[in-house]
Amino acid sequence: MSLSAVVQAIASFGPISRASASKITGLSKQTVSEIVGNLEVEGWVRTVGQTEGHIGRRAVVYEIVPDAASVASVDLGGTKIRVAICNLTGAVVNELEEPTDKSGGEAVIRHVTDLVQRAAGGAKLNSKLPRVAVIGVPGVPDPGTGQIRMAPNIPGLDCIDAPDLWRRQLGIEVFVENDVNLAALGEHWLTKRGEKDDLVYVSIGTGIGAGIVVGGQLHRGASGAAGEIGYLPFGADPFEPESLKTGALERVAATHAITEMYRKKSGRNRSVPEIFEAANQEDADAQETLDQTSRQIARVTAALTAVMDPSCIVIGGSIGAREELFNRVKKYLSMCFPRPVLIEKSTLGNHAALAGGASVALSRLHLSLFAEGLKGVEISVPPPSVETFKKGVA
């Protein structure tokens, strides 16, 4: 417990003197000096100067050694895979992005492994392999085993033991979490929304889902499927077989639904970015497509607000973060819900899940290194600059 308390003090308030760490932790100066000395010998902390502005002898101050270890955060999407390698303070030191292997199944497993290894190899760190990897997936990881369920956007991913395959291929600790849950944690951790301990993150892109933070903690539900709002009975007929597979809401409010809706209205095939551009150019069919999509998202946002009463709802994802859609959702939400709702656009954009994965991986790593195997101990890692994740490189 003493070790974790000292590490928490240095991580949160460093550069910090041993005397200050003693005051913060309530431990004796001798105990703190012994712990800091051991951490310095083992390469986890380093001296970075002396205190200034104090009367009397100046004290040496310490900080965490950023490059002493690293973690990997992975955002596995239906169209892209993003990997960020972060140092011990959470700064991104390397990032890679590639299109997702369309073969699905074990081909995607190998692709993620290869991308993590290449990203780690390109990072300028003392240790070439990360200690922990957190992988965000577009599905529902089983709370006990981590095996992935309900992942329609990556074929075959729910037919294999993905966590075990990644652990064996990478040779490190691997934790699997829903990608939208990680995005919610990322927004909560890396922005001022950490001051709002009850928030809902709604992601609209290839699929649609929500991450729910209650009391500062991720809410997964009894089976880990909290936030699977794509299956809410809005939009398409929920009793049709396709709705059981894809979800009634997702059938009318995600990428494929938007492009198909526009095609039926206009007779033209266009990508979602092209539809946004057409709407900006006064294309009536494109504008009507975005209006209809926004109304569906406003309805589900109203439902989430009525049930959860969060302090903030964050809209993100490759589609949700677009200004053209976000502004429409705000307008329609005010028309279908009787009281004001604080609704904000994602600050982190497509790096939200990477940020959340980094926060989980760093917490796991700090616990394994410094919590002495004690149950109930927590080490919260202070977030780095938001720009670290928006730019992708420290």
UniProtKB/TrEMBL annotation:
Gene3D superfamilies on file: 3.30.420.40, Winged helix-like DNA-binding domain superfamily/Winged helix DNA-binding domain (1.10.10.10)
Superkingdom of this protein's organism: Bacteria
A Pfam family that the UniProt record links to this protein: ROK
Molecular function terms, GO-annotated: glucokinase activity
EC number: 2.7.1.2
InterPro entries: ATPase_NBD, ROK, WH-like_DNA-bd_sf, WH_DNA-bd_sf
Keyword annotations: Kinase, Transferase
Enzyme class: transferase
Family recorded in the similarity comment: Belongs to the ROK (NagC/XylR) family.
Name under which the protein is recorded: Glucokinase
The gene coding this protein: glcK
